[in-house]
Design brief:
Blueprint (H helix, E strand, L loop, with lengths): L2 H4 L5 H4 L10 H4 L15 H10 L13 H10 L14 H10 L14 H10 L14 H10 L14 H10 L14 H10 L2 H7 L5 H8 L16 H21 L1
Length: 257
């Protein structure tokens, strides 16, 4: 026997992964795998992903693999109609992949998944008509995602949400005529967003806010006649912003004449 027939192929002896592999030696010889780089038996997500990306027809065979990462990556490359049963996989990473791939009409059973990231994926893809089912989710990130997608007419259902970040999203999306619903929000960050988008009458009211950055945000939207009162504001930034607007108004009137 020549040395050429007895010498192990590169990487096989070093990694010890090819021995007993169902794909050896056919895949190795056909360059469909590379020990240390694209290998289904490795405990490396990157290597598994490279293997299945090159060999998508093999992915379905690993949907029930004992290694969670192999199942998760296999779910990414398997036909969608083969991954339905993984909606209840014991590993949340596998379920997250499933939630990003299922047809939207199949997401209903994942609305109450115990994992936040799974529910976030569902909230990002659920049809608008079903988003109200997540309004009471215990995680504010889910409710904030819902707030970003809800039709404008349903946003008022979240103006009393207990979490500031959710109300900030609502304040950024409510129609201007409805912003008065958040004008007295206990959080100045929410009121500042309201002030930035307020109609003139509401903006004039917010010029009296106790927080200076809310007053500053209201300056650009408030009626010009309401601004001189703030020329004596204790905050320099507000006095300067008011003076700029007054000067712009005077210049505009001069040009019109």
């Amino acid at each position: 026997m020549t040395s050429e027939t007895t010498q192990p192929q590169a990487g096989v002896g070093r990694l010890g992964l090819c021995s007993g592999c169902a794909h050896y030696p056919d895949f190795l010889n056909a360059l469909r795998c590379t020990p240390g780089d694209a290998c289904i038996r490795a405990h490396s997500g990157r290597q598994i992903d490279r293997f299945l990306r090159q060999n998508r027809d093999e992915a379905e065979k690993y949907l029930e693999d004992i290694f969670w990462e192999r199942r998760a990556i296999a779910a990414r490359y398997s036909p969608v109609d083969r991954i339905f049963r993984l909606k209840s996989d014991p590993d949340e990473v596998v379920r997250r992949v499933v939630a990003t791939r299922l047809p939207v009409d199949q997401l209903e059973t994942m609305l109450r998944d115990p994992d936040r990231e799974v529910r976030l994926s569902v909230a990002a893809r659920l049809p608008e008509a079903q988003l109200n089912r997540l309004l009471g989710d215990p995680d504010y990130l889910i409710r904030a995602t819902v707030a970003r997608r809800l039709p404008h007419g349903q946003l008022t259902r979240l103006v009393k949400d207990p979490e500031r970040e959710v109300r900030k999203v609502v304040a950024s999306r409510l129609p201007s005529f409805a912003l008065h619903l958040l004008a007295e929000d206990p959080e100045p960050e929410v009121r500042a967003i309201v002030a930035e988008r307020a109609l003139p009458e509401l903006a004039a009211t917010l010029l009296q806010d106790s927080e200076w950055w809310v007053r500053l945000a209201a300056v650009n939207n408030a009626p010009i006649e309401s601004l001189p009162a703030l020329l004596g504001d204790p905050e320099t930034d507000i006095r300067e912003a008011v003076q700029i607007r007054i000067n712009e108004e005077r210049n505009s009137q001069s040009r019109e004449k």
